[in-house]
Specification:
The protein has 347 residues and is of the alpha/beta class. It has 14 helices and nine strands. The protein has one domain: Metal-dependent hydrolases (TIM Barrel, Alpha-Beta Barrel). 41% of the residues lie in helices and 12% in strands.
Length: 347
């Protein structure tokens, strides 16, 4: 049993969609709402403090046109311009930093993340989820890197110029079609040269194995779960987990109920023990240094006992009650993320 307080355990989280939530907002200054603790969704500064979330990967995501038409008709005019949407979301992250009065910082190295954690500053890492806006010649990659980009998922669920993401309904295999295009293979090599993290979370089986073949970096899925426990196409098979372990990689457990539950239902009435069940399994397959959190806050629905980022201490307590000791809880909550980021980025 852990002897430390669950409320005192810092959490570095591998995936959230705050920037999409801010971009979709019709408020005049959504960043101000986030910083003033008045934002709808899973994340704002007050609840981040309550949950002791000290940092994480903040995703830029371009919603498909049919999603925009359904959920945000006021934004449909921009659906044909993924570059404008991407640049706008990167700008939102920059605005959080500049308007936060020192409470948040875009981090480019693990040393910067560690400094933020020790000084109580929110450590934000820029991640791109689906590279629709990136030109096949990769000319934009340098400027995005300068802006702080340190992690990229080349595809979301839909195909783009770089390849084919995972698609399909529950239950289903991740083997859902073609993998990377030649431009996608070039992107993998470019990510290795720049030491960008390559996110496996929305890759189908073919693109997963191409990444394992062509990339020399640890294999990392920022927000995915175990297919053996929940046979969603987005989850990882035992064979994939073995490859991740062999590469000394990492998996961040997704809190989305459709990726947790054995029945695959999108049902908030889901116990925190389902998260623990996936953690148990991944620890068995990957070892205690290669597993952490990848919540998908603001991008999916999460169990009611968690509710939002302020509920993270309840999850930490659930781990303690399940017999996880304080050293393992700290690894899962933040230390393992920093390990794999340092190994990938080189600093």
């Amino acid at each position: 049993m852990s002897t430390s307080s669950s409320r005192s355990t810092p959490v570095f989280d591998g995936h959230n969609d705050l920037l999409l939530n801010l971009w979709l907002s019709q408020a005049e200054n959504p960043v101000g709402l986030f910083l003033d603790d008045k934002l709808d969704g899973h994340l704002d500064m007050a609840r981040i403090r309550q949950g002791n979330m000290v940092g994480g990967l903040f995703a830029v995501f371009v919603l498909p046109q049919d999603y925009l038409a359904k959920f945000a008709p006021h934004k449909t005019a921009l659906a044909h311009d993924p570059l404008a949407v991407t640049q706008a979301q990167i700008a939102l992250l920059q605005h959080i930093e500049t308007q936060s009065a020192g409470r948040a910082k875009i981090c480019r190295t693990v040393a910067e993340i560690e400094s933020c954690i020790s000084s109580g500053v929110l450590a934000m890492v820029l991640h791109i989820e689906g590279a629709e806006a990136l030109d096949p010649e990769l000319r934009l990659l340098d400027s995005w890197y300068e802006a702080g980009l340190r992690s990229i998922g080349p595809m979301w669920n839909l195909p783009n110029q770089f390849g084919f993401g995972v698609k399909g309904d529950f239950p289903g295999s991740p083997d859902t079609g073609e993998g990377f295009t030649p431009a996608g293979i070039s992107l993998l090599h470019a990510c290795n040269r720049k030491r960008l993290l390559i996110d496996l979370s929305h890759m189908n089986e073919k693109s997963f194995w191409q990444t394992a073949q062509y990339s020399d970096a640890p294999l990392v899925a920022t927000h995915s779960n175990a297919h053996a426990l929940c046979p969603h196409p987005r989850n990882l098979t035992d064979k994939q987990l073995a490859a991740i372990a062999e590469s000394d990689g990492f998996v961040g457990v997704n809190f989305g109920t459709t990726f947790l539950r054995a029945d695959g239902k999108r049902d908030n009435n889901t116990p925190l023990s389902d998260i623990v069940r996936h953690l148990d399994y991944l620890l068995e397959k990957l070892g205690e240094n290669r597993v952490g959190f990848g919540s998908d806050f603001d991008g999916t629905n999460v169990p009611d006992p968690l509710a939002d980022v302020a509920g993270l201490p309840r999850l930490i307590q659930e781990l303690s009650d399940a017999g996880y000791d304080s050293a393992l809880i700290e690894k899962l909550a933040w230390r393992n993320w920093l390990r794999v980021l340092r190994q990938t980025w080189g600093h």
